[in-house]
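Render this sequence as a predicted structure.
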Amino acid sequence: METIPRASFANLPTELVLLILKYATERTCAQPDQYESKNLYSTARALCLVSRFFRRVALPEMLHTVLLGFRNVTAFVHALRMQEMYAQTNSDLHLAYTRHIHNIWVGHFRAGTPMSVPELDLGLLAPVLLSAPSLAINFSNMDLLTRCVEHAWTHMDKNINCECSPPPWSTKTLTLSGVGTSPWHIKEHPSGLAFLASLAHLVVLPHTQIDSNLHVIRRAASVIGPQDYVLPRWMRHAPWTLFKRLETVSLVFPRIELPVDIRAFSTGMHLQTDLLTFPASLMKGHRVPLEIKASAETGEGLISLKDVRLVVSDFRVHFCVSCQEWEKIWACGLGL
């Protein structure tokens, strides 16, 4: 039997080895046909076990976009504890997570149960959660965000002038998913008011049953026009005046082309997504808009499609009545 020669990096330039490893550790969500949420980081994790050199290359790539759900949040907090221990012992395994995380997702937990983090671990999680320029959080975990923001605020250097210095977080883009909550308890704290006021971009992912499915049904039944969109209901009651530095608002919807086969959608279809972005100033009038309209119809409760930048995704994801891959859509960048 002919022996198959084994690949070796021994004779390759270091720069080429680094390129190969970085490509191998790319998030699986960048490869739509092979996406499975349970093994999003499987290649990167396997490479981390090969050697310390491989780990130093793979782990930062793995941390670029972090997805936290009920399956892995405990493991993530445990990893933060381990990193704290590595830092205290000057171990070669120490890596400052906050330098490498660009996007972090805190999703919907089983049965809607909020993510529970003991106060002892909040000091580890808060700096990491708030170090990401882009943070996505399910409404069911808004209490966790409130606690993290309050922790960062109260642990600032007391000699720093809060009004003139940058806030103790790097979050510029906030993505909200799930069922909107009212009232917003985060605004009951000075830290929460400062956090909302510092945001530049807000992204809204529709709730599967309430917003996304209704969007499909409205289009199919011609309740709305073929280029019209209804804003999620919670947006009517959001504290828009507190988003003082907000520049843009973005909405994401499954892309529906008429005619729509509702039965096929019920069982599952692979669809592109529409990303609609418009100036935040349109949400700060006397009356919050309820719809985006393509027609010439105007009014205080409407946003004209002419004032919206529409981007269609170049990949398709699985949509059905009960399951929609918003986590994957967000992880792939949304086209922002």
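Summary. Residues 17 and 301 are 56 Å apart (CA to CA). The chain is about 30% helix and 15% strand.
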